[in-house]
Amino acid sequence: MSLSVCQPRKRVAVIGAGAAGLAALRHTSCRPEVFEVMCFEQSAVIGGTWVYNDDVGTDQYGLPVHSSMYKNLRTNLPKEAMAFPDFPFEKDGRSFLKHEEVLDYLEKYADHFNLKKYIKFLTEVKHVDPVKDGHGGVTWNIKVKDVRVADDTSDSSFVADAVIVCNGYGVLGRMHFNGSLTKFEGQVIHSHDYRVPEAFANKVVCCVGCGASGQDIALEVASKAKQVYLSHNKPALSTSLPDNLSQTSGIVELTADGGMMKNGQKLEFDVLLLCTGYHYSFPFLSANCHVNIDDGRVTPLYKHIVHTEFPTLFFIGICTKLCPFPQFHNTVKFILATLDGTFQLPPKEDMMAEEQREFEWRLKKGYAHRHAHLMGPLQWDYFNELADLGKYERLPKAVQNLFDEIHRTRCNDLQNYRNINYQITGPETFEVRY
């Protein structure tokens, strides 16, 4: 049964005004009779990781630079597949966009749905703590701070009935490595701090990691570097590569001037560029929230979203390797279905048991522990399950079909796949447009 309009509105706090936070605002704010929403954003603008910043390290307020965006980035998904389902990109123009164009899209999304009035900018969330009401329920005490004030005199407190965490994933780079990084006497940089290829002109670079960012950054660095080694333990890429970009196996041990590789090679390089992914981080959640992060796995989360002990604490963006904006849309719709009673969450014990069964299934299928939330081809059944439970419309099949086509063309022609443009032509169909 849905929440009656006679009942008090649920106060929802959203942490972060990137794409996930904007989706949360869009769907809560359009139901003012049910939800009262406020968003806390520590920067002065919306967009999260899509806001390019030349700086690395910390910003003017001493906070970590949030964005991992590099200057020349273009999306590795076409706009026709990555759009929010209820707000398509403009049809004209190329399919694979610059980061500035995606940020412009998010600005238009926020303006179209009048979202900025719900956002408290330049506001850092310092502390989130559950407060039990004595009747089995929980409210959330949220302490925030104006980032422009050096001391704690600007601290304010808010109370919410539910919290949606949308603070992003690509901030805290994974820097762990086989052997000690201190052995290597050259430059070590994580992809989070990569901005332009000119910084590697005439250098020999070992780019570690063959995910989407590793492939793209290795290609870009090769345009300026003397030599680039793409180090990974996945099957070799079958696409053509520049003459000065070669694949090699993973590093077994670093040396002062390079590394020993798994395949027996000893390579010398000037720069170790780590495209090795990110850690989840929720520094504002108190220990009382009982959120655990262990080697890439966040627990206890039902459907990768709902805290099983505190089912009014939600996370958007935990899952990786999928269509992000459609994921955010689906996750928010599912969250609101649990809050308004459209979907009745199972008992805590059942949610925890399902979480464990899914994780053990992944391990049996060969997934690494750190890939507890990796989706890839699993995303479509996952999206459909959320939609069916929440009783809202599934994503059109055309999005999956186009996503799968891009994966195929990317594998076959990494250097040129972005030159193709597409259009969705029906619920299940798409075509190449010229």
Task: Compose a concise summary of this entry.
By secondary structure, this protein is of the alpha/beta class. Helix content is 23%, strand content 23%. The longest helix has 17 residues.
Features:
434 residues; alpha/beta; FAD/NAD(P)-binding domain; five-stranded parallel beta sheet; 8 helices; 24 strands; 23% helix; globular; disordered N terminus
Describe the structure.
Its cofactor is FAD. Keywords: FAD, Flavoprotein, Monooxygenase, NADP, Oxidoreductase. 23% of the residues lie in helices and 23% in strands. It is of the alpha/beta class and 434 residues long. It has a five-stranded parallel sheet, with helices on one face. A five-stranded parallel sheet has the order 9-16-10-11-12, covered by helices on one side. α4 links the parallel β10 and β11 (227-231).
Number of domains: 2
> What structural category arises from helix and sheet content?
alpha/beta
Q: Please give the number of β-strands.
A: 24
Q: Poorly predicted ranges (pLDDT <50, ≥5 residues)? A: 1-5
Round the Cα radius of gyration to an integer and report it: 22 Å
CA-based shape: globular
* Oligomeric status: single chain
CATH homologous superfamily title of the largest domain: FAD/NAD(P)-binding domain
Please describe the biggest sheet, giving its number of strands, its sense, and whether it closes into a barrel.
Answer: 5 strands, parallel
Helix content: 10-25%
Using the coordinates shown, work out and report the CATH topology of the largest domain.
Answer: FAD/NAD(P)-binding domain
Determine the mean pLDDT.
95
CATH class of the largest domain: Alpha Beta
At CATH level 2, the architecture of the largest domain is 3-Layer(bba) Sandwich
Q: Proportion of β residues?
A: 15-25%
CA distance, first residue to last residue: 49 Å
The total of helices stands at 8
Could you give the order of strands across the largest sheet? 3-2-1-7-22
Cofactor: FAD
Keywords: FAD, Flavoprotein, Monooxygenase, NADP, Oxidoreductase
Protein name: Flavin-containing monooxygenase
Organism: Lingula anatina
